[in-house]
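Exercise 7. Given the encoded structure of a 374-residue chain, write a plausible sequence.
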């Protein structure tokens, strides 16, 4: 049985960005073994690695004056130094970093597919080319939603669909009595997440025009699209990125939580983590008909196909609905991140991939920055 002393995670996101599936899972796995997160490069005047450590998670952020791939030998060498002879498990979130597996050929490989990255706006064509190779090398493969797993199921050696979860206690702080009224003229409709090509900007603009007295609060960083293309109106606000710690306060102010996703290539396989976060906060949810959301949350989330239907469903969501609220509470109760992380860890062990005895080094609560690059 291959054992490991440390997890090296290949990440396409920023660890300190929007708190998502990798943050939840890897931070929990770091309770047992140290985790080294390798990010994709950022531009800078000269080459270097920014290395920061918080608790048992170390983040490596390559800085490059120019680059042709997401990982190079310099980054691999930085990881080798951090390993210091320990045996790694390679945990991939992006096939684009497949060359990391070549640098550590003896390490077992895990692929946790959280998005169909090859379908995203401006995706590097090498993502689609490298995913079959990554699946071939993976001892275990997970996926964050049923559609995602179906796309790889016939190529998976071991693993399964492990949908994303929620920190119930964290979001339960947002719960409050919500006296609702179908005619409520000052309702606040709240979105939390990345603002990118996955959102239906025309639907948002049209819905805001249909209900000028409502506030449409679009929380999150803008990525991959020109901010000038965002719909603008007096009742559409863009507060920017929200820290994970802020989300209960943001959702406590919401009357309806929304997921106005476009139905396009980028959203065909998504299974949004925010669905459970909204529900755990006790906020009614209205979404467009994203396949996995429809399959997993029928009778809990309200669905719409266009702006007119979206505002009608939001009006219904403003009214008490005890049956939906009970179903939402039941769904949330079985989806906490601790349970999901433990099940994935058990799946690894069942397939011969387990942490070595004594791997945990006990580091907690420290922050260290090494070899800064400009």
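Solution.
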């Amino acid at each position: 049985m291959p054992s490991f002393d440390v997890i090296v995670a290949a990440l396409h996101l920023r660890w300190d960005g929007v708190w998502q599936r990798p943050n939840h899972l890897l931070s929990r796995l770091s309770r047992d073994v140290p985790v080294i997160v390798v990010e994709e490069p950022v531009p800078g005047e000269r080459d270097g690695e920014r290395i920061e450590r918080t608790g048992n998670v170390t983040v490596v952020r390559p800085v490059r004056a120019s680059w042709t791939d997401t990982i190079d030998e310099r980054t691999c060498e930085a990881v080798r130094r951090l390993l210091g002879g320990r045996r790694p498990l390679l945990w991939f979130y992006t096939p684009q970093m497949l060359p990391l597996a070549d640098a550590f050929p003896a390490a077992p490989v895990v692929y946790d597919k959280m998005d169909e990255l090859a379908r995203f706006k401006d995706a590097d064509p090498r993502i689609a080319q490298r995913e079959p190779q990554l699946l071939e090398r993976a001892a275990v493969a997970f996926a964050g939603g049923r559609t995602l797993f179906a796309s790889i199921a016939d190529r998976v050696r071991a693993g399964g669909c492990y949908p994303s979860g929620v920190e119930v206690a964290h979001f339960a702080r947002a719960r409050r009595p919500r006296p609702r009224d179908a005619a409520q003229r000052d309702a606040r409709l709240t979105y939390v997440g990345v603002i990118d090509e996955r959102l239906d900007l025309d639907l948002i603009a049209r819905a805001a025009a249909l209900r000028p007295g409502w506030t449409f609060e679009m929380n999150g960083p803008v990525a991959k699209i020109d901010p000038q293309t965002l719909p603008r109106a007096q009742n559409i606000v863009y507060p920017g990125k929200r820290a994970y710690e802020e989300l209960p306060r943001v959702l406590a102010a919401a009357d309806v939580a929304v997921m106005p996703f476009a139905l396009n290539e980028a959203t065909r396989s998504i299974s949004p983590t925010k669905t459970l976060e909204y529900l755990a906060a006790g906020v009614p949810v209205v979404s467009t008909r994203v396949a996995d959301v429809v399959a997993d949350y029928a009778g809990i989330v309200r669905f719409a196909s266009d702006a007119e239907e979206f505002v009608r469903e939001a009006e219904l969501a403003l009214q008490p609905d005890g049956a939906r609220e009970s179903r939402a509470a039941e769904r949330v109760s079985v989806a906490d991140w601790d349970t999901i992380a433990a099940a994935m860890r058990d799946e690894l062990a069942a397939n011969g991939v387990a942490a070595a005895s004594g791997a945990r080094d006990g580091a907690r609560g420290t922050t260290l920055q090494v070899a800064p690059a400009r």
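Remark. Residues 3-165+336-370 form a domain with the Rossmann fold fold (CATH 3.40.50.2000). Students should compare their own answers with the one above.
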